[in-house]
Design goal:
It contains no helices and 15 strands. With 171 residues, it is mainly β.
Length: 171
């Protein structure tokens, strides 16, 4: 089948959205039955694995935060660039409590966020890059307990609509 990839424990599916942007439930159905719904996000932001190099903004990365591990990514920013970060985990059905920190090229923390009840336990922050260089973003579970599922999607960029809270679709 086109648009479908398999590897042990994972199923990759390419979806072509015909509706508007939003949060939608997705079910996988086979001859053996159907899955529980999982929430997917449909928008215009390209989403790549957290391990992939970030070439430009806006972009979204996806990955997992397990146990007491800290997931990290780096992004190059020019001085004065406004950056909004929206961490989507709990709204997508993940169990961990996200904490986010952003460090400038001199390893000074320039932004951070903790679980926000207005975002159903997810977090978001924004900042203006004080200097040009490589910024490091850290993500970890507030309780460092290994919640499962532990997936996330982090949207990064100067997204004017990013300050709006988007509730998860309910099945």
């Amino acid at each position: 089948d086109r648009g479908v990839s398999f590897e042990p424990g994972r199923l990759g599916v390419e979806i072509r959205a015909t509706g508007g942007p939003g949060w939608y439930p997705l079910w996988v159905v086979s001859d053996a039955g159907g899955s529980a719904a999982t929430i997917i996000v449909v928008d215009e932001v390209v989403t790549v694995p957290i391990e992939q190099a970030i070439e430009g903004l806006p972009i979204a990365v996806h990955g997992e935060v397990r146990g007491d591990r800290i997931s990290q990514l780096q992004v190059s920013l020019p001085a004065g660039e406004r950056v909004f970060l929206d961490l989507q985990a709990r709204r997508l059905g993940a169990a961990w409590q996200p904490v986010m920190r952003v460090f400038d090229p001199q390893e000074r923390q320039v932004a951070g966020a903790r679980p926000d009840p207005k975002r159903e336990g997810d977090c978001a922050t924004e900042f203006v890059a004080p200097r040009s260089g490589v910024y490091r973003i850290e993500l970890q579970d507030q309780l460092r307990r290994g919640a499962n599922p532990a997936f996330f999607r982090l949207v990064i960029g100067d997204l004017r609509s990013g300050t709006a809270v988007h509730p998860a679709a309910r099945s």
